[in-house]
Amino acid sequence: MHTVEVDLGVRSYPIHIGPNLLSQVDILFPYIKSQVMVVSNTTVAPLYMETVVAQLSVSFRVDTIELPDGESYKHLDTINKIFDALLTKKHNRSSTIVALGGGVVGDMAGFAAAAYQRGINFIQIPTTLLSQVDSSVGGKTGVNHPLGKNMIGAFHQPQAVLIDTLVLSTLSDKELRAGFAEVIKYGLIIDYPFFEWLEDNMDKVLARDPDALAYCIKQSCISKADVVSQDEKESGIRAILNLGHTFGHAIEAHQGYGNWLHGEAVAAGMVMASDLSLRMGWITSDFHERVIAIIKRSGLPVNPPENMTENDFLHYMSVDKKVLDGNLRLVLLKEPGKAVVCDNIDAKLLSQTFNHKI
């Protein structure tokens, strides 16, 4: 087992990473006070709920709720189902919510924890690659609105994150590939040697080699923990974690949440960000082609949906959280392994990116 620490002073917490950790849930006991509400969904619960609840029940009173599965359910009506369960079972401020599932479950369970009785503890047990390397770490919680992705939410850090690498064996190829978008992102924005490692080892990763997957998860968590420790609430450097996300969130909103997986949309968005970086003269055409190549090898899209126009992008991007004082801010690549936030985008170059297809 590897443990990565997210250093946030009194809100610091560990990320435990390793195989078969779902059978060692007792390592979470120090972070639980009394009652537990395990929040999962109809896909994950039949696989892992019994294992987790059996261990927690040794020391705590445990209740459960299963939510419908999918990004399309990530809204306030579903959050109310969590509140209903908490209130019905008389959970109080000493209760802990355990999020058992992918990014949608984690985001909603975390938001419910942030809001219930003005804030209770929660723990993340992510079960998809994307949630293990990204959404379970950093304390971003929330739900979608028809006009924008994750527009309603709160920063609320977990008490601990438990990542069992073996659960990826039950993940579909489509969901596994979607997780690689966030993995590749870390190599592009902060860890160029990791990007080179991915180029050399992508075949092993796609084949679900246990050591290769574990290394991907560990390196990704190290990178994210480092950034979050420096900038918890995204007032500075943390914004670089959004490479491709402004484009990607627009794709998700336009297509209807769930029709494009988050990782698929981010992958296409990263290619667009790389294309714009090339047009601004910051990266070479050779590196841009390498970005395209590794995303293609991952089985992820390199073009946005064919039915999306420039106006569609501008409409949804105008309500993105990263818009500041009316100015669109995009995360772009200054060089391999280094990202910057840019808010003075040449409209002509941006238009060229919107209309370019590979």
Can you describe this structure?
The chain has 358 residues and is α/β, with parallel strands linked by helices. The protein folds into 2 domains: 2-167, Rossmann fold; 173-354, Dehydroquinate synthase-like, alpha domain, CATH 1.20.1090. 44% of the residues lie in helices and 18% in strands. The protein has 12 helices and 11 strands. The mean pLDDT is 95.
Taking the alpha carbons of the first and last residues, their distance comes to 41 Å
Mean pLDDT: 95
Shape: globular
Topology as a string of helices (H) and strands (E): EEEHEHEHEHEEEHHHHHHHEEH
Tell me the number of structural domains: 2
Number of distinct beta strands: 11
Q: Uncertain spans, ≥5 residues at pLDDT below 50?
A: none
Largest sheet: 7 strands, mixed
The number of helical runs is: 12
- CATH architecture classification of the largest domain: Up-down Bundle
What radius of gyration results from the CA coordinates? 20 Å
CATH class descriptor of the largest domain? Mainly Alpha
* Helix/strand structural class: alpha/beta
Q: CATH topology of the largest domain, anyone?
A: Dehydroquinate synthase-like, alpha domain
Q: Order of strands side by side in the largest beta sheet? A: 1-2-9-6-5-3-4
Strand coverage percent: 15-25%
Helical content stands at: 40-55%
Say which CATH homologous superfamily of the largest domain is assigned: Dehydroquinate synthase-like - alpha domain
